[in-house]
Amino acid sequence: MLNSTPDHADPATTARSRGGLSRRAVRIVFACGGLYFGWRWAFGAHGPAWRHALQVLVTMLLLVTVAELVRWLRGRRGGRQPGGFPVRALVGAKLVLVAVALGVEYLLHRWVSADSAQLVVGVGLGVAIAVIGPVLHRRHNRPGAQLRVPVPALDRGDV
Questions:
Q1: What is the rounded distance in angstroms from the CA atom of residue 90 to the CA atom of residue 96?
Q2: Taking 80 as the threshold, does the pLDDT of residue 84 lie above it?
Q3: Is the distance from CB of 147 to CB of 84 less than 8 angstroms?
Q4: Which end of the chain is more exposed for a tag (fewer CB within 10 A), N or C?
Q5: How many angstroms separate the CA atoms of 85 and 74, rounded?
């Protein structure tokens, strides 16, 4: 007798059946994002490093907002409650990433020209997004990985 439900499901097939992206698609999206933000840092703005850091950060935060809106709309259309992004963690990670990139660029100014420092940091930022992004995406999008906020238990004697 043929078993129509396998004991173990392919993660890519499972993600697509839930309306998500396959692992390959996630890697491609983050690689494109890494290319874009690396290019944006290295070549997108001339001027002080803090200015292009601010531009990259604002663009990242806008994309998180748009992605959250799309996810919410897809959940409403599908008739199920969508799980939200861990927005605080994403914003915090983006702040740390941009702060580290800015700090590295200022440190590199000691040894190389400003244009070279921008290029090196842009490449590093692009690689970091392309490599770390899919890992964090899998971590935050696996079943049961919704953000849980611990609620302290109240002692009824204190009320």
A1: 10
A2: no
A3: yes
A4: N
A5: 13
Q: Tell me, what amino acid is at 122?
A: G
Distance CA 69, CA 115 (A): 36
CA-nearest of 145, 138, 157 to 26 is 138
Residue 47 φ/ψ region, left for φ over 0, alpha for ψ in the -120 to 50 degree band, beta for the rest: left
d(C-alpha 25, C-alpha 40), whole Å: 22
Identify the band that residue 157 occupies on the pLDDT scale cut at 50, 70 and 90.
low
- CB proximity list for 144: less than 8 A, separation 6 or greater: none
Amino acid at the residue 93: A
Element (H, E) at 116: helix 114-141
Task: Look at the alpha carbons of 73, 12, 135, 131 in this order and tell me if their dihedral is positive or negative.
Answer: negative
Residues 55-84: what's their mean pLDDT? Answer: 77
Higher pLDDT: 157 or 15? It is 157
Q: Which amino acid, 92?
A: G
